[in-house]
Structures are given as C-alpha cells and as structure tokens.
Amino acid sequence: MIKSQYLTTIGNDLHPKIAVMWTGNKVIPEVITRKSIEELVSVLKRKPVIWDNIHANDYDVKRVYLGAYCGRRVDLYPLLSGILTNPNCEFEANFVPIHTLGTWCRMAAATASRDSEESTDTDTFEDVAMDDLSDDDACPESPHGSPMDLEPLSVADVTSVVAEYDPKHALRLALKDWLLEFEKYEQAPVRTYSKRNLKSQVVNGQTVLTATSYNLDITPPSLENLEEMRAEKKCSMNLNEDQLILLTDLFCLPYGYGDKGVQLLEGMSWLLTNVEDIYEDPPSKEKVSCWYDRLQKFEEHCRAVYDMFQLFCLIPNEAILYDLYPYLWDLKEVLLSLDTFVHWLAKGNLTPGTKLQPTLLYPDYINYSSHATSDYVEPWHVMYLGGLTVALYKLLPFKGGYHFLDEAPERPTNDMLHVRPYTESDKEALYQFCAFEDTDDLFDIEKIDLPGDRDFGPYISVCERTTFTVEDSEGICGYIAAVPDNAAFHKALTSTWLPEMNKKYSDVADFMGPLPFADCPSWNFPSAAHLSVRLNKRTRTNCNLKRLLSTTFSVLKSLGAWYVYCCPDKDHGDAFYTALGFYPLEGEYSNLLWRAL
Questions:
Q1: Whole-angstrom Cα distance, residue 466 to residue 484?
Q2: Residue spans per domain, the chain
Q3: Which of 152, 367, 386, 396 is 20 to 30 Å from 487 at the Cα level?
Q4: What confidence tens digit (pLDDT) does each residue in 359-400 have?
Q5: DSSP letter (8 states) at residue 499
Q6: Cα–Cα distances in Å, from 518 out to 502, 529, 591?
Q7: Arch. (CATH architecture) of 417-596
C-alpha cells in the first residue's frame, strides 16, 4: 500500500477536505486490520471512510448474508471518518447486518470515548442513528407508531453486554429484536428489489433487468380467504430465537458458514466418504454402528431445517417471507435430495466396492481463512459461488448445475414433498394411484390392479431398489422409477415378468403392447438408463420435478449409468427438459429425450 503510486498521488494532490472511501485490501475483505488502516492513513494523509461490502450479495443469485457484522475490530474506529455498509439487495435481509453494525459502532464509540479520557484526540466520527434497531428492552413509540430515536449506549450499557465486541453476542441482540419484526403483519411490496425476482428483457436493443410483482394481494384466488389466512398465520407464529440462529447460520457471510451450516456439510460429506463401511464383507460392527449413528445425527440437523422452514412460511410478515423464501426453499430442496440419496445408500443398494467421492467446492472450505485472506480471491470465485446451498448440492454424484435450483414457487408454501425408497407396504396405495389418478375411466373391479401392473409393476418387479415413493402431508402422491440398465431391464421383462402378466390377463387383448423403444439402438447401449415419473396434480410442479430428477440422476450415476432417457409428460414439454440439458433423438424416436449424467 505504501508503494502504491495511485494512493500516494491521491494523498498528495487531493484536497484534504475531500473524503476517500476504502473497501479494504480487496472488494470484499474478510478482515480489515488496524495495521492496514494505519498504513492507508499515512499514505492518504486523511482518515478513510470504509465502504464495507461484507454483506453485499449482488454478485451471486444463490446467496444472501444474514450473519453479524464482524472482521473489523473496534480499535479501527479512531482511524476512520465513517463507515458505510453496502447491504443485501433484499431490504428485509438487512436487519441483522445493520443492527449488528449499530452495536459495533456503539461499542467502538464507547471504547474510543473511554480511551480518549487520557488523550486529547477526540476526533472520531459521529455515531449513526439506529432508529428501529434498538437493543433496549423497551422501544418508545412516536405518535405515528414508529420507534423514536434512541440515545447512544453508554459505556456501562455496552460493558454490561459485552466487554469487547463479540459478533455472536451482537447477533443475539439483533435476533431478539428481529423476532418482533416477524410477528408484525406487513404486506410484500408490490415491486420487490430482490435479485431473485429480476427478469431480463430487451428494451431499445439493451438487455435490462426489471422486478416483477410479488404481492400476495393481487393473486385473484387468494382474495376471498386472504384475511382468514393472515389471521391463521398470526396465530401460528412459532419461530423462536434458536431457529433464527439456525437461519443465520445457513446464510451467514461470504467466506464461511455458521456452526449449523458446517455441521450439515461435514456430516453429509463424512457419510458419503465412508459409505463403504456398511458394505464391507465381513462387516465391522463398530464401523456400521458409527455410520448409522452419524446418519441419525444428520437426520436431526435436517429435521431442524425442515421444521424451521415450515414455521418460517407461516410468519405474518410477508415482506420478510417473500425476500428470504427463495433462498430457504433452494437449501431445503438440496437437503431433501441428500436425505433421499443417503437413505437409499443406507438400505445397501450401492454395488459393493463402489466408492463415492463427494465433491466439495474445495477441500478445506470449512477452514477457509487461507483463501479468504488472499488478495486475489473474492467471494465470486468458483470456490464460493452458491454458498452452503451449492456446496451441499455438489456432494451429490450428479452435478446438474443451477438449472436444477432456480424454481421456487412464486407464492410461498410450506408443503414438503418427501421421496423415499419404495417398500412393499406402498404397493396397494400406488396401485390405487395408478388406477384412479388422471382418469375417469371405469374399471372392472376384478381387474382393478391392471393399471398398476401395466404402469408400475415392471419397475417394482425388476428394479425395486431404484424405485421411490413420493409423498406429501396428504399421503402418497406418486412415484419415480429409475432403471440403471435398459438392456437388462428389457431382458428381465420379456423373459419372466411379461409372460406372467399375459397369463394373469389372458382375456385382455394386448395387455402390455410392444415394449416402448425396445428397437431403439442407443436405448440398449451399455450404461444407458431411463426413468419414469408420475405425480398427482397438486404436486406436478416444475420445482418438484426438478428435485426428483436431480435425486434420481444421482442414484443412476452411482450405479454406473452414463446417460438417461425419458419421455416428456403432458405437463412438462420439451422446453422444460431441454432447459435441463436433455436432447431429443432424431427420426422415429423424436419423442424420446436423453442427457448425459
């Protein structure tokens, strides 16, 4: 810094009353040290104004930062002319960042005031006004209902809370106040500035980003029951401070995760790396017990996230809900995918000898300090992009990219779709599903099993271990069947299962018909797989289907499949699948799509 001709010129030639803004030793530094600011002051010949980007998130559509202000010691305060924060794009995401910055400023001012009692240097910048971010127990109201300006904290006030600024303590203070905001009824703005809601369009030959409406009130079907729904939400506001800590841990800061986020990442990474322990022959009782104990702990962490997600969706404050919902939705979907995959592994379905190598964004993400302190690595580097959500997603064998993580429902819902390995006890419900879903046809009661035998039976007969049951809060609502080897599947059907079915339905003309795509050469190539997905109407959404595909692709890839075929369903045409990397075959099989795994 001392050798910088650029900074030296500014220090020598710029009028001394003109302030200079400084972001740190890079655009988004994890730490701003006192030594670096002392050097800067000597070069600039003035105290800088810090333009702090620690909570800026406009460079990554998958990340929002809810962590406490940190990485800047309070002893910087006397060396600065001021601090500006460049916060998240989402307005409601900035309560904790600004509240904790206010705590830092008050702590720093109190410390500087105490230190200056023995010094004549009292030239410090004036504290910011923290109008509605009080950490006082009581919040006096103005005549208009808005919190009034608060007096700065005294040294006694501050030292009664913390002896030195502690981000964790500051976070607790902020969350105590933020929780009260969750309980308030506030409408989502008619036009949001959330970067997750930006749509590109061409105007006068220029591509511009515009925000789309995000207002619960303007959805016609919701008008009749809107007030009733809001009253129910107010009664069901059950989020607590511990769950807000979990939320901030999952979406912490650019260079790292909170404790709960680290536990999720470490837990799943360990399970996948050591999955061969449960496949050893002869098995080690100690290793097997350890693996399943770790699985149970991971389940507990996941369940805490699911519970928090469902309660978050019921908060009365729609402004907070709409701003943060897309991020929490994506993370929840990734956890559900991992949950399904690891429970599939737990049932012994992996081919013995197979080694899974989970891909962390980089090996020591959790110990990120060596990367973060580099002058050349910013948070938009590939090792950081996507944050915890993408780091967890990268643990799956299938690497599908952002296309599988960009479809949160436009209207927040706390419905959760669970996918689990099929069991024999699911057969009756799924056969009834096949018989009655999407049809008004009348069936011969004696042949009620015919649709199930025809549509679902081949998969549970030949490849039960790669068949999954889909269920939501109302019960079983569909299935997804993955075939890891098309040629072997076709052989098993024609040699065993189909003759049995033809005998069972001897009075039904052409019970099965010709097996689809049996004559397609590439369909029968080695390592060629296919899948069949069937969901009921209420769950047949783009976001649900994306997660089901991503999860099943990981299963197929771990079993050695290289590419997968599927047929577009009536609700999702070619455009949906081609956006996910599928390609149509040419000629007579043009209705068949494929993609590499």
A1: 8
A2: 5-183, 227-393, 417-596
A3: 396
A4: 544 334 444 444 444 556 888 888 888 899 999 999 999 987
A5: H
A6: 18, 13, 14
A7: 3-Layer(aba) Sandwich (3.40)
